[in-house]
Amino acid sequence: MLKNNLSQLLVCWRKLDSALVLTVDINLFNYFKMSEKSLIPSTVNPDLQKERNAASFNVEEFATWWHGGAEKLKFKRELENYMFKDMEEDNHLTQYKSHADIYEQAVKQAIDAAKKLRKLQEERNPGGIDIWPELYNSSLLWGAMPAGNPFGVQFVMLVTALKAQGTDEQYADFGKRAANFEICGTYAQTELGHGTFLRGLETRADYDRKTDEFILNSPTLSSYKWWPGGLGHSSNYCIVVAQLFIDNEAKGVEMFFVQVRDEETHMPLPGIDIGEIGKKVGFFGVNNGYLGLKNVRIPRTKMLMRNAKVFSDGTFVKSPASVLTYFTMVSVRCIIARDDAIMLTMAATIATRYSAVRRQSPINPNDPEPQIIDHVTQQLKLFPEIATGVAYRLASDYLMSLFDITSNEIERGEYGRLPEMHALSCILKVLCSYDATEGVERLRLACGGHGYLTSAHLATLYVYATASITYEGENTVLLLQVGRFLMKTWRNAISGKPLSPTTSYLVDIVKNNSVEKWSGTWENMVKHLEFVAANKTRTAFESLTQRLKAGQSEAEAANNTGIELIQAAESHGRAFVCATFLAQVRQLQQKQSSPALQKVMGNLLELYLVNTVLKQMTNILRFVRLSETELRTLQTRLEKALIDLRPDAVAICDGFDYHDRTLSSTLGSYDGNVYERLFEAAKKSPLNQQPVPKAFHEHLKPFMKSNL
C-alpha cells in the first residue's frame, strides 16, 4: 500500500522543478532498496533435488573416501564452518574494488585467517605440532581469502626451503621466525630476464673473506627478481636465489636469506629497490613484486648450508646432489598438480549444477524444455572433465606420497629416487595445468553467457589455472626435461640397467617391441598407452642418435629433436595418469567399499580411459593396428559411459564436498537457485547503487543537448 501511494506521489511531483524531482527520485530509490529482501529461496531448486534423489550411490560414502576417511572429512567441514562463520557476506565481491583496495582486503583477510587458525591450534592441539601453516595454504581456505593470499609463498616455499636447505642451526635462528609469522617473507628466484632456466640467473653473491660476508648485486635490469608472490609490499625478508662467486669464480646457484625491509618501519633497506610488478590477469591481491640489489651485504651464515657450504676461509663444498638445490621447486609442482585438479573439479561442480537447473532447447519439438544436462553434447562437455579432475587428483595424491618417501630417503643420504621424482613432478605439473586450463574454459563455455559473468567464478578459476602453465617452470621447458630423462632411461633399458618403477614398462619394448592384442579391457587400454609412450621414446631416441652421428653436438641434437622429446614426455605422462587411476579403482574394489561406490568409480574410469584413448588415437594407430569395428566400439563405449554417468553427475560433484564459500559462484551453489543469485549479484553492482550515474549529467546529457 505504501509503495503504491509513493508511486502516485512521484507522478505529481514530476510537474515540479526537475532538481526537486531528482531529489525525490533518489529518496524513493533508496527507500525501495532498503525495503528489498533477498530473492533467494530457502529451499533447494527442485531440478537439482531431483538429481540428488536419483543418485545410485551414497554421496557421504564418496565424500568420505575422497577426503581420506571419516575423521578427515569431519575436520574439513568443521574447519570450513569455523573459518567462514564470521565472514562478511560480500567479501568475495572483489571485482568492484580498486587494485589498492583489493590488496588491502587481501592482507586483512590473510591476517584474519592466520589469527583464526592460530586460535584453532590453541583449542584443538595446544602445545602440539603446528598444523596451521599447512592449513593456511590449503584449498579449504580459498573461500576465506578470495582476493588471494599475499603470504602464501611464505609457507609454501620460504619455510619449506628453510627447512630443507638450511641447517638445523639456521632454521632455529631465522627459519622458526618465518614459520611463526614473526616475520613475513617470500622466495625470490625468477628474474626479469630468466625464469625456468635457473643456470642463467644473473643475480650475484660474491664472498668477501675480509668481512665474512656475501655481497649481493643485480648487475643488470634483466637480473631484477620478478614475480615472487608477496614481494611487492608484504615481505621484509626473502630467500634470494643467486650465482655464488668466490674469487670471481662461479660455483653455481645457491640460496641466501636476505632482509629487504626494516622490521619496525617496513621501509626498504639500503641497496634495496623493491615494489609491485602491477596488476595481472588474476591473483589480484597476491602482491607479486620486483627486487633489485646493489651491494647488499649479509653474513656468511645467511647462505643456506644444509647441502652446499662455504667456510670462512672461502672453501666451498658443493652439494652431494645438484638437484637438491631445486627440490623446493619439486614440492611446489606437486602442490600445483593437486590444486589444478581441485580447480577443475570446482569448475565441474559449478557447470554440472547449473546444467541441472538450466532448461533450454527441446530435444523433441513438442516436449517441454529439458534440463540442458540431458543433451548428450552437454554431457560431453561436463562428464569427461569430472573424470579428468578425479584422475588428476588421484595422480597428484600418489605424487605427494612419493615426495614424502623421497624426502625421507634424502634425510638418510639416499638420492636414487630423485630423478624419477623430478620427472613425475614436471610431467604432472604440465598435464594438470594444461588440461585444467582447457577444461575450466570448456566448462565456462558450457554455461553459456552466464558463465561469462565474474559472479559465476569460472573466469577466476580459469585465470588461476592458466597461470600455473608458466609459474614454477614453463611447461615446454619441463616437457623437454622429462624428454631428456626418458632418453637417459632408454639408454639404461637397452643396456640392461634397472629402471624406476614408473618407467619399467619400457623394458618390454626393448625386448620385443610388441603389445598384447587389442581387447579393450581397462588393463589392455593402459598397456596400449604405455606401448605408445615407449615407442615415442624409442623414435625420439633414434632421431637423437642419428643427429649425433651426423656430427651435431649434444645440445644441437637435443634442440632439433625437441618436438619428439615433448611428445614422448606427454605420452609417458598420460600413460602414468591412466595407470594410476586404474590402480586406485582396483584398490577400491578390494576394500570394504559398497558395490555402488565401486561402480560409479568404475564408470568414471571407463569414461576417462575411453576418452583418453580416442584423443590419442592418432598416436595409437601409428604403432597399433585397430579394425573399423574396434574403433566404432570405442565411440559406442564413449556414448554409453555418458549415459551411465548421467544419473550420478550431480551427486559425484556433491561428493567433492565444496563449501559454497569456496565455490563462490552464483551458478554453482548447493541450493541451485541460479537465477535468484544472478539477479541479487547484479543488484550489488556499484552502478546500481544510484538511479542515475554521474556520467549521465557530466557527459551523456550535455552531448545529447548540444545539437551536434
Describe the structure.
With 708 residues, the chain is α+β, with helices and mostly antiparallel strands. The protein has 25 helices and eleven strands. It folds into four domains: 1-35; 59-149, no CATH class; 153-319, Beta Barrel (Butyryl-CoA Dehydrogenase, subunit A, domain 2); 329-498 and 520-653, Butyryl-CoA Dehydrogenase, subunit A, domain 3 (Up-down Bundle), CATH 1.20.140. It has helices at 2-13, 18-35, 46-53, 59-66, 70-84, 99-124, 132-136, 152-165, 168-179, 327-357, 376-411, 418-446, 458-467, 475-494, 506-511, 522-549, 554-560, 562-590, 595-615, 617-623, 628-645, 649-656, 660-663, 674-683, 694-704; strands at 185-188, 204-208, 213-217, 225-226, 237-246, 249-259, 272-276, 289-293, 296-299, 309-310, 316-317. 42% of the residues are buried. The model is unreliable at 1-26 and 28-35 (pLDDT under 50).
Largest sheet: 6 strands, mixed
Rg of Cα set: 29 Å
Average pLDDT score: 91
Number of helices: 25
The total count of strands amounts to: 11
Q: Kindly identify the CATH topology of the largest domain.
A: Butyryl-CoA Dehydrogenase, subunit A, domain 3
* CATH C-level label of the largest domain: Mainly Alpha
Architecture (CATH level 2) name of the largest domain = Up-down Bundle
The separation of the N and C termini measures 45 Å
CATH H-level homologous superfamily name of the largest domain:
Butyryl-CoA Dehydrogenase, subunit A, domain 3
Identify low-pLDDT runs: 1-26, 28-35
Measured as a percent range, the helix fraction is: 55-70%
Beta content: 5-15%
Tally of structural domains: 4
Q: From the helix content, strand content and strand pairing, which structural class follows?
A: alpha+beta
Shape, principal axes of CA atoms: globular
